[in-house]
Each structure stands twice: as structure tokens, then as C-alpha cells.
């Protein structure tokens, strides 16, 4: 009987695996095509100064709508692109469209303040030409108008390499944020050696800090540590006025989240913010 049940579980598991793999193969083919036809788009989410509520910049977030599969979430297609060797091509297109958008806002006399942040994947750090390529792709845009976000986990995958690359990026004038901070395992020793000017506090801590004194202590400690290292803090996932109030109290510099605005297309973003 036990054996029978185990066999049944096994079959259900195998079916689910097979379906997941099929979806992956299909999505990979569609994504390859979407990249070839440059069909990925960007949404923009405001980043604001917590004390004044004014815009300090935005994060560019990649979006993909497929005719057959509908909207595919970046949580699915970014890891897929990483796994299937498509992430460098995707990353290039994101930088190009982000810069094209900055120029277009400028042409429309929509003043974009601060900097536009673009996410980089771990594998993009393996490219020894990364800094030069980013400079080339952002031709016509000043480096200080762009920031790059790299997750703590991605930086810690090969910390020595990350130290070198972050210093290179900083050296040419790009700014750099450590994304999803608090979820990885960086040591304080590495933290000070990465050339990052901003820490983005992962949204899990922000969401839990209202109910948990532990999470509040974590957020407060991250802010104090960032300040000691001369870095700014951005809280992610700010959804409620209570988040804003507590983050202000704890001395956090900036915030990003649904409370201020969801990621939206360039026109909506400009109408609301620029
Ligand atoms: P991330 O860089 O940490 O981006 C923040 C994510 O949090 C975005 O999800 C955003 O829509 C979501 N978010 C913002 N405010 C709130 C809030 O108040 N509440 C909640 N629940 N969520 C909020 P999104 O757009 O689905 O992107 C997911 C992840 O995909 C990003 O996380 C980033 O790691 C990756 N990603 C997106 N675009 C790119 C890209 O162009 N290149 C690379 N390499 N990764 C990207
Ligand atoms: Mg990010
Ligand atoms: Mg994040
Ligand atoms: Mg994330």
C-alpha cells in the first residue's frame, strides 16, 4: 500500500516536472524571438526622498508580453534568461531602452531628476568588458544619470570580481546600489570593499517591521551601518503610510513602493512625476 502511494506521488511529481520543463522550453523559444524583435519593454517605478516626498529617480523594470502566454513575470523570465544564456542580450536591450527613454523625456522637456536605476544580473558581472559596454550602450547619457542595482547575493557569488567591477563602474561615474539587501550573506568586510553608494533594504524587512520588533531592529541596524559606511538607504516595498512614518523615524533616506507608485509605462510615469 505504501509502495503504491509512493508510486502515485512519484507520478504526480514527474508530471509536474515535465509540464514545468515544457513551459520553460516554450518560453525560451518565445523569449529568444522577443529579444530578436526587441519586444521587451520597460516600466518605471518612482524612488522618492522620504522626508520631502520628492522624486529622486526611478527604477527601470523589464516587462514582457507574449501573444500566446500573456504577461510573463520577470520573476520567471529573468531566471530563465540567466539559465539559457540570454541575459547579456536582455541586459543590453534594457540599458539601450532606458537611455533612449531618458533622451525622449529630455526632448519632451520632461525633466528627469536624479538617476535611473537598472538591474544587472550576476552573470553580467562575468563579462570583463561590462563597464566599457555599459558606457558604449549609454552613449549620449551622462554616467551620473544612471545607477546599477546588483543583488547582495549576486555580488557575493564572486566577491573579488564584484569588488573590481563595482570599482570600475564607480570609477567611470555610474552609481551603484546593493539590491535586496539583508537576504544574502555578505560580511561587513566585503560590504565596505564593494564600491556601492546605496543599500536597498529588502522589502521583507519593511513589510514585517510593523509587527516584529526583530525586523524593526534589522532595518534600524542596516540604516545605521549604511550611514557609518557613508552609504544611502532606500527602503523597498513601501506600501503603507505606517511604513513611511517608521522609516522616517529610523532615518532611512529614500523609499520605493506601491505607496508612491507601481511600476508604469513611460508616459504614465512622466504624467505623474515629470
Ligand atoms: P527588484 O530589482 O528587487 O525590483 C523590485 C520588485 O519589487 C519589482 O518587481 C517591483 O515591481 C516590486 N515592487 C515594487 N514596489 C513594491 C511594493 O510596494 N510591494 C510589492 N509587493 N512589490 C513591489 P518586478 O518588476 O516583478 O521585478 C522582479 C525582479 O526581477 C526585480 O527585483 C529584479 O531582480 C528582476 N528584474 C526586473 N527587471 C530586470 C532587468 O531589466 N534586468 C535584470 N537583470 N533583472 C530584472
Ligand atoms: Mg532592483
Ligand atoms: Mg530589490
Ligand atoms: Mg528582488
UniProtKB/TrEMBL annotation:
Occurrences of domain EAL (ranges): 24-274
Cleaved signal peptide residues: none
Protein name: EAL domain-containing protein
Organism encoding this protein: Halomonas marinisediminis
Amino acid at each position: 500500500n505504501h509502495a503504491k502511494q509512493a508510486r502515485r506521488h512519484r507520478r504526480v511529481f514527474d508530471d509536474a516536472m515535465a509540464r514545468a520543463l515544457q513551459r520553460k522550453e516554450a518560453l525560451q523559444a518565445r523569449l529568444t524571438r522577443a529579444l530578436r524583435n526587441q519586444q521587451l519593454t520597460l516600466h518605471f517605478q518612482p524612488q522618492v526622498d522620504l522626508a520631502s516626498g520628492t522624486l529622486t529617480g526611478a527604477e527601470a523594470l523589464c516587462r514582457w508580453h507574449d501573444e500566446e502566454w500573456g504577461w510573463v513575470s520577470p520573476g520567471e523570465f529573468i531566471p530563465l534568461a540567466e539559465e539559457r544564456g540570454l541575459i547579456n542580450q536582455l541586459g543590453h536591450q534594457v540599458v539601450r531602452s532606458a537611455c533612449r527613454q531618458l533622451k525622449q523625456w529630455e526632448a519632451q522637456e520632461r525633466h528627469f531628476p536624479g538617476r535611473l536605476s537598472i538591474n544587472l544580473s550576476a552573470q553580467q558581472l562575468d563579462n570583463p568588458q561590462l563597464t566599457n559596454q555599459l558606457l558604449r550602450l549609454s552613449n549620449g547619457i551622462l554616467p551620473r544619470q544612471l545607477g546599477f542595482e546588483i543583488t547582495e547575493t549576486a555580488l557575493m557569488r564572486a566577491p573579488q570580481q564584484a569588488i573590481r567591477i563595482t570599482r570600475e563602474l564607480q570609477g567611470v561615474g555610474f552609481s551603484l546600489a546593493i539590491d535586496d539587501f539583508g537576504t544574502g550573506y555578505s560580511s561587513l568586510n566585503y560590504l565596505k570593499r564593494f564600491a556601492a553608494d546605496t543599500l536597498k533594504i529588502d522589502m521583507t524587512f519593511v513589510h514585517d517591521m510593523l509587527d516584529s520588533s526583530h525586523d524593526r531592529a534589522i532595518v534600524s541596524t542596516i540604516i545605521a551601518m549604511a550611514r557609518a559606511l557613508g552609504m544611502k538607504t532606500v527602503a523597498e516595498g513601501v506600501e503603507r503610510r505606517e511604513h513611511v512614518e517608521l522609516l522616517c523615524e529610523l532615518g532611512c533616506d529614500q523609499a520605493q513602493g506601491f505607496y508612491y507608485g507601481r511600476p508604469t509605462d513611460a508616459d504614465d510615469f512622466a504624467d505623474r512625476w515629470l
